[in-house]
Amino acid sequence: MCLAVPMKVVEVNNNTARVEVGGTHRTIGLDIIDPKPKIGEYVIVHAGFAINVIDEKEAQVILNDFREMLGDEFEAH
Amino acid sequence: MNLKHISEYRDKEICQKLVEKILKTSKKDIRLMEVCGTHTMSIARNGIRQLLPTNITLISGPGCPVCVTSQQEIDQFLKLTEYENVIITTFGDLMRVPGSHSCLQKERANGADIRVVYSTLDCLQIAENNPEKQVVFLGIGFETTAPTIAAAILEAKKRNLKNFSIISAHKLVPPALIALIENKNVAVNGFICPGHVSVIIGAKAYEPIAQNYRIPCVIAGFEPVDILQSIVMLVEQIERCRGEVEIAYKRGVTYEGNKKAREILYIIFKPTDANWRGLGMIPQSGLEFKEEFKDFDAMSRYNLLVEQVKEPKGCICGEVLSGIKTPFDCPHFGKACTPDEPIGPCMVSTEGTCAAYFKYNQ
């Protein structure tokens, strides 16, 4: 039930945003997120509200973690 | 979040390397508990149990909000159907959960006005469109969901909506983990902590567990690589006799969590003791309305007192939720209890442990 979907912000209004994923648009609440997301950013949406912003660069962090954790073994592949 | 990244989170070679790391590092017999319905499904779907050495047992904990909702709470939801002027709104997950005598789906077929919503904002719209009726939302969910409910209440107050209220049956995850650790029948050496709950509460919420009980807590994402990475981190901690909080889902979770969401949540609610299916009463593990928002509390608007009820006969959902038993230990599993004809909530919910075992035949 805690399922949440990353969606791209295409429009920001006062306390709501229009988001898009796979061609589908929705209006979501921005009540529980601070700072507010900007157009073009990705947000994780749960039950109609953005709960956090995902920076594309952050996705790279986890891959760097693997490199650190696995060391040469990771680089070998 | 481009496709390249997603594919890497599912990359077979990375998974294989992580499994090799686990095989190399893990010596002790350990039990790791995941506490998130989405993790339960991901572990089952990706066959992660089968990838691990026999000394590591993965058990499912109380990670599915629908499943941990007590039988008494389900009966209270159903009692609301006795009020004629009420539109009941709910997330779809609850519709088929059996109460003592019926379920919401049956009551809807019998004529009750029960509407499935995607968001509490939809409930506000329904309330505005039906000023002559009362709209009640069945509030279940963990720390991920509860702030969205609180935000809707603030919005309802702003719009001066008098015909909207909520039953608060929300649950808080960290107190349940502590209750499990203190339960002598449950043996857990490490927690795979939920991803989206932790987006809100932050890694710091698990510090009391790690520090006071020396049990490692690692927050995991949802892809197979995320989960295997969290297992590597747990194994490394356990082999070194450490109990720390770590994040294996850094693209989603921070140490501090979402402070704004918690602020909104605690404007409306305060912690209270709550009754969990299978785990019983756990101190300060639920949420009740603060005095100034009692007007939105459906429990004070309606008489929803129901008798203390027993779990369905023979159903072991309670022990499955505590990680004491697996669905295979249940005499009903796959026979009298299937996703089409569920007896207990762990088979009803798409992210329940029994449903996961049934679907992926584990």
* Largest Cβ-defined interface: A-B, 35 and 58 residues
Total number of beta strands of chain B: 11
Q: What characteristic shape of chain B results from the CA principal axes? A: globular
Number of strand elements of chain A = 5
Content-based structural category of chain A? alpha+beta
The shape of chain A is globular
Describe the structure.
Chain A is an alpha+beta fold. Chain A has one domain (5-75): SH3 type barrels (Roll). Chain A is 25% helix and 40% strand. Chain A has helices at residues 56-70, 72-75; strands at residues 5-12, 16-21, 24-29, 42-46, 49-54. In chain A, a hairpin with a 3-residue loop joins strand 1 (5-12) and strand 2. The longest helix of chain A is centred in the last third of the chain and has 15 residues, at 56-70. A five-stranded parallel beta sheet of chain B has the order 2-1-7-8-9. A four-stranded parallel beta sheet of chain B has the order 4-3-5-6. In chain B, strands 10-11 form a two-stranded antiparallel sheet. Chain B has helices spanning 3-9, 12-25, 37-45, 48-51, 65-68, 71-79, 104-109, 120-129, 146-158, 173-182, 195-201, 207-213, 224-239, 259-268, 298-301, 317-321, 345-348, 353-360; strands at residues 30-34, 56-60, 86-90, 114-116, 134-139, 164-168, 190-193, 217-219, 245-247, 269-276, 280-289. Chain B has three domains: 13-65 and 183-246, 3-Layer(aba) Sandwich (Rossmann fold), CATH 3.40.50.11750; 70-172 and 257-301, Rossmann fold (3-Layer(aba) Sandwich), CATH 3.40.50; 317-360, no CATH class. In chain B, 41% of the residues lie in helices and 16% in strands. In chain B, helix 2 runs parallel beside helix 13 (224-239), helix 3 packs parallel to helix 18 (353-360) and helix 9 packs across helix 14 (259-268). The model of chain B has no long low-confidence stretch (mean pLDDT 93). The interface between A and B is large, with 35 and 58 residues.
